[in-house]
Design goal:
The complex is a heterodimer of chains A (323) and B (247). Chain A has 323 residues and is α/β, with parallel strands linked by helices. Chain A has two domains: 223 residues, 3-Layer(aba) Sandwich (Rossmann fold), CATH 3.40.50; 75 residues, 2-Layer Sandwich (Alpha-Beta Plaits), CATH 3.30.70. In chain A, 34% of the residues lie in helices and 26% in strands. In chain A, the strands form three sheets. A six-stranded mixed β-sheet of chain A has the order 6-7-8-3-9-10, sandwiched between helices. Chain A has a four-stranded antiparallel β-sheet with strand order 2-1-4-5, covered by helices on one side. A four-stranded antiparallel β-sheet of chain A has the order 12-13-11-14, sandwiched between helices. In chain A, helix 6 links the parallel strand 7 and strand 8. In chain A, helix 3 packs across helix 4 and helix 5 packs parallel to helix 6. Chain B has one domain. Chain B has ten helices and no strands. The longest helix of chain B is centred in the first third of the chain and has 34 residues. Classes of the chains: A alpha/beta (323), B mainly alpha (247). At the A-B interface, helix 2 and helix 3 of A face helix 1 and helix 4 of B. The structure holds adenosine-5'-triphosphate and magnesium ion.
Chain lengths: 323, 247
């Protein structure tokens, strides 16, 4: 405990993971400070759950090393497990048992006495506003309530580090807001959070964000740093023929990216160049938009692809393959 | 120790709230007994009550085997829905998880077996107290062996599609080989040889010894073999759980 208290919350070196022929992680080097809220943002299949599972002691890396709170996540699993709480991408509650029993049993799994586990369950139900549903079967809860119970389950053993894998997948705006308010409260008490998501707006409140794509970290920094990396403001043009507009722009010394939202340009002074562009573009512009770069723009700029599956608004995605 | 308690507690609470499973596990042994007893008994040379007494330990074995393995198969289901992960990331030793699963499976299998035990007087079988204790001891040993077999197998699988394959390709042959329904010592030699490798044969023989007072194998040998199976299977199950999601 004494020497691990000074170590970073998470540290990986040269992490690789292969599933047979699939090279899911291709050299991940990360360091997460204690007390930090750290987000791993990337599209489907980027390797988020794989990295998450290695850190959470469920998978062994094919190469490299991961240390969690100073302990090796493959060799000192028990020490790591005692100190972390996890909300999985898939639901992990026993649907037929009551909410209270789910929490009580997890308390037992984390070494609490029967009496202490009961007390802890009651305490968590109160702080998370779940008292009314305490006696209800977990399978009969709403999606948002379920996720809050999963959060409560992860917090049973008062972990130093909380792992959240796509924790609000499929929730509506309200339920998501409530969930993140609870997570922020946990961070407020000094906890560290490592979360994965493909919603930009969920990564936004994080202290630092790592963008992951094809098993590699392609950018890392605070949201402000990442956005500054784009190198200017965003000019988005929706035209009658985006491809032709992009070709023309390229011929005239710009570096456009085409996405389903339109043609995207990064300009130091987007509002200033806009009138001239509108006048000289060979195709009609239906809509022009100037905004500060979003994380979506950062991803598009770095990869030339949209953060697939990331909705413009916070509406839950129907696709995704997992319930 | 707490980990072991947690694993067993979880499974027992789940059985308790799953009324369908609980009720069917109470009814299932009655079906076995009456279908097997009347159907086979009618066409048997042993005939009538005698045959019923003869197959009673066999029915106990059948009930224990299928209930224990079925309870273990819920591990596969848990893995498939993702619930098992929540258990596997807990700071509980893998040995405690394996042993806890084995003990909880054995307890679950003993529910229907207890119903059969209660029926003993109705079948016109009255056992002396020592014989009854012997029978209960043999049942406990059988339940733990079958549960260990189930857990060591189920821990390896990721999909519930293996259930029917296991019950048809593994459990039924094990049961029919065991001499639960006919006297092994009158069976052809190849069958007797195969039965030597079948834990169900030893378990049924041990229970039959308690009921009828005669056995095919020396009781001490049966006990040693069953304990051996339990140790090896528990070790195997621990190893699979220790590998986590990787295996
Ligand atoms: N058990 C497995 N066997 C083989 N390939 C796998 C396995 N798990 C993941 N993969 C592959 O590894 C890659 C990374 O998957 P991973 O689940 O880590 O992505 P992800 O970023 O979490 O995606 P999502 O946003 O869809 O959850 C994908 O190409 C996936 O198909
Ligand atoms: Mg994932």
């Amino acid at each position: 405990m004494s020497d691990s208290a000074a170590s970073p919350a998470l540290e990986t070196r040269g992490l690789h993971k292969r599933y047979g022929a699939v090279h899911a992680l291709r050299g991940i080097d990360l360091s997460v400070r204690r007390g930090e809220m750290f987000a791993l943002l990337g599209p489907n299949g980027a390797g988020k759950t794989t990295l998450f599972s290695i850190l959470a002691t469920l998978l062994r890396p094919s190469e490299g090393e991961a240390r969690v709170l100073g302990f090796d996540s493959a060799r000192e699993r028990v020490q790591v497990r005692q100190r972390i709480g996890i909300v999985f991408q898939e639901p992990a509650l026993e649907g037929k048992l009551s909410v209270r029993d789910n929490l009580y049993l997890m308390g037992l799994f984390y070494g609490l006495s029967s009496r202490a586990a009961r007390a802890r369950a009651i305490e968590l139900l109160r702080t998370l506003g779940l008292e009314e549903v305490a006696g209800r079967e977990a399978q009969k809860l709403s999606g948002g309530q379920k996720r809050r119970v999963e959060l409560a389950r992860a917090l049973v053993a008062t972990p130093e580090l909380l792992f959240l894998d796509e924790a609000t997948l499929g929730l509506d705006v309200d339920a998501r807001r409530q969930f993140w308010a609870e997570v922020r409260r946990y961070v407020g008490t000094g906890g560290t959070v490592f979360l994965t998501t493909h919603y930009m707006d969920e990564a936004e409140p994080a202290d630092r964000i790592a963008l992951i794509d094809h098993g590699r970290i392609i950018a890392l920094g605070s949201p402000q740093e990442l956005k500054a990396r784009v190198g200017g403001g965003i000019l988005l043009l929706a035209t009658d023929d985006d491809a032709q507009a992009a070709t023309w722009l390229r011929e005239h010394g710009h570096h456009p990216e085409v996405s389903e939202r339109g043609v995207l340009l990064v300009e130091p002074e987007p509002a200033t160049v806009l009138p001239a562009l509108l006048a000289s573009l060979p195709v009609r512009t239906r809509r022009a938009e100037v905004h500060e770069p979003s994380l979506e723009d950062v991803f598009l700029k770095l990869t030339g692809r949209a953060l697939e599956g990331s909705p413009a608004g916070p509406a839950p995605r129907a696709a995704g393959g997992r319930p | 120790m707490r980990g072991l308690f947690a694993v067993v507690m979880l499974d027992l609470k789940r059985l308790w709230v799953d009324r369908v499973r609980l009720v069917s596990s109470l009814i299932q042994p009655l079906l076995y007994l009456f279908v097997l007893g009347s159907g086979l008994g009618a066409s048997s040379t042993l005939g009538g009550k005698g045959y019923l007494h003869y197959i009673y330990p066999g029915v106990l074995g059948l009930s224990l085997l299928f209930s224990a393995v079925f309870a273990a198969m819920l591990i596969v289901f848990d893995r498939q829905i993702g619930f098992l992960k929540a258990v596997l990331v807990a700071p509980v030793s893998r040995f405690a998880i394996a042993l806890g699963k084995i003990l909880s499976g054995a307890l679950q299998a003993l529910v229907p077996a207890t119903v059969l035990l209660v029926l003993l007087p109705l079948l016109g079988l009255d056992l002396s107290l020592p014989a009854f204790v012997e029978l209960v001891g043999a049942m406990l040993l059988a339940a733990i062996t079958f549960s260990a077999l189930g857990v060591a197998t189920a821990a390896r699988f990721r999909s519930t599609t293996v259930f029917p394959i296991i019950s048809n390709a593994v459990l039924l042959p094990m049961f029919f080989l065991s001499g639960a329904l006919y006297p092994l010592d009158r069976a052809p030699i190849w069958l007797r040889l195969l039965a030597h490798a079948d834990p169900v044969a030893y378990a049924v023989d041990l229970m039959r010894g308690a009921v009828l007072g005669r056995t095919v194998y020396p009781p001490l040998l049966s006990i040693a073999v069953l304990v051996g199976f339990i140790v090896v299977l528990t070790w195997l199950a621990t190893r699979v759980f220790a590998a986590g999601e990787d295996t």
